[in-house]
Amino acid sequence: MKKIFRVLIIIFSSAVLIYGVFVGVDCLRLYNADESKPPIITLSPAKIENDTVKYTGLGYTVTYRTTVEAETEENESHNAISDVCGAEFRLFDKILLWAWIE
Questions:
Q1: C-beta of residue 70 within 8 angstroms of C-beta of residue 84
Q2: Which terminus has fewer CB within 10 Å in the chain: N or C?
Q3: How many C-beta neighbours within 10 Å does residue 64 have?
């Protein structure tokens, strides 16, 4: 019985450690991104409002706030230009790990 309990603890600890490394790597990757990027594994992207995009990953969410400029003569080739002006990274959609606003 002791041996089975020990193996289960090792398996559970390994899974938690691997998940922590995965979330940490994706957290740093998204924090250092120059533009709006989805998580490595995206479960459901959603556009909440005209200026907010929310990506749901494995146990965490990334929300980007954007500003959209209308089409002008200078950017005729594009319908509109969107610029990321803020982002936040939440663990389990509750715990704020980081956020930034321009």
A1: no
A2: N
A3: 21
SS3 category, 91: strand
Handedness of CA 81, 85, 89, 94 (dihedral sign): negative
Residue appearing with tokens 């533009």 = 35
Distances (CA, A) of 68 to 3, 71, 93: 59, 9, 26
Cβ neighbours of 63 (radius 10 Å): 18
Tokens of 65: 């706030």
Q: Look up residue 84 and give its amino acid.
A: V
Residue 15 has pLDDT above 90, yes or no: yes
Note the pLDDT tens digit of each residue in 36-46.
Answer: 788 888 888 88
Report yes or no: 78 and 71 within 8 Å, Cβ to Cβ.
yes
pLDDT over 90 for what percent of the chain? 31
Separation CA 19–CA 26 (nearest Å): 11
